[in-house]
């Protein structure tokens, strides 16, 4: 690779954003997400990839600042030389426990380079997750929206819609599903979530870095 893609990993909502936790308080999205994001960056850097966090603060920087951080790097390096993945944990309701359980990735609406990034993450999720949940059919374990011909779900979330580079947002199971919380917090769960992101991002960089 003559020019390796800069990888930006965007942590979820900050400590000062209300809610965003499991009903029993065991999983705090700001804390869990930052731990996962830091480990993703650590593993990528250890393998020689150019990766960093968009923020190291526990507090919420705000959507505008998140976008500005990413776009400033795009302006410096070139849009095609940057990608961004925002890592979150989903929620099915406003309180109590629910049964929803799946992994998915969002991109902005329309055909964008983010769709190609999401494809790589979906490929990794399909390798990593089904062996760990043999009792759940793949189409229930991983959520797809094939209406536009690819697997990702489209929504104009600010952090992926307003950024200039290939960008997607992953939702990694549910903080209000008790079994999901226990699994996400386990060594196996943590490793699986980190591993699928690392694998997917590496695949994207290998495919789309400019030669």
Description:
- The mean pLDDT is 96.
- This protein has helices at residues 29-46, 63-77, 113-128, 138-141, 158-161, 178-185, 187-208, and strands spanning 6-10, 51-53, 82-90, 103-107, 153-154, 166-174.
- It is 41% helix and 16% strand.
- The chain is of the alpha/beta class and 211 residues long.
- It has a six-stranded mixed β-sheet, with helices on both faces.
- The longest helix has 22 residues, at 187-208.
Outline the secondary-structure elements.
Layout lengths: L5 E5 L18 H18 L4 E3 L9 H15 L4 E9 L12 E5 L5 H16 L9 H4 L11 E2 L3 H4 L4 E9 L3 H8 L1 H22 L3
Helix pairs in contact: 1-7, 3-7, 6-7
Largest sheet: 6 strands, mixed
Task: Kindly state the number of beta strands.
Answer: 6
Low-confidence stretches: none
Q: Overall 3D geometry? A: globular
The H-and-E topology, N to C, reads as: EHEHEEHHEHEHH
Structural class: alpha/beta
**Helix percentage:** 40-55%
Overall mean pLDDT stands at: 96
**Strand neighbour order, sheet with most strands:** 2-1-3-6-4-5
Rg, nearest Å: 16 Å
Span between N and C termini? 5 Å
Please state roughly what percent of the residues sit in beta strands, choosing from under 5%, 5-15%, 15-25%, 25-35%, 35-45% or over 45%: 15-25%
Record keyword descriptors for this entry.
211 residues, alpha/beta, six-stranded mixed sheet, 7 helices, 41% helix
């Amino acid at each position: 690779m003559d020019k390796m893609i800069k990888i930006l990993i965007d942590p979820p909502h900050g400590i000062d954003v209300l809610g965003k936790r499991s009903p029993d308080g065991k999983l705090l999205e700001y804390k869990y997400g930052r731990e996962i994001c830091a480990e993703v960056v650590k593993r990528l850097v250890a393998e020689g990839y150019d990766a960093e966090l968009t923020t190291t603060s526990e507090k919420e920087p705000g959507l505008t600042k998140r976008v500005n951080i990413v776009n400033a790097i795009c302006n410096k390096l070139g849009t095609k030389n940057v990608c961004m993945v925002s890592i979150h944990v989903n929620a099915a309701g406003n309180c109590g426990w629910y049964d929803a359980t799946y992994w998915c990735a969002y991109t902005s609406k329309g055909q964008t380079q983010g769709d190609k990034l999401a494809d790589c993450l979906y490929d990794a999720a399909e390798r990593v997750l089904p062996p760990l949940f043999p009792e759940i059919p793949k189409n229930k374990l991983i959520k797809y929206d094939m209406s536009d011909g690819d697997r990702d779900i489209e929504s104009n979330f600010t952090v992926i819609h307003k950024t200039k580079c290939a960008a997607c947002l992953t939702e990694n199971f549910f903080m209000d599903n008790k079994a999901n919380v226990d699994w996400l917090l386990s060594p196996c769960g943590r490793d699986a979530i980190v591993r699928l992101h690392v694998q997917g991002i590496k695949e994207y960089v290998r495919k789309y870095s400019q030669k």
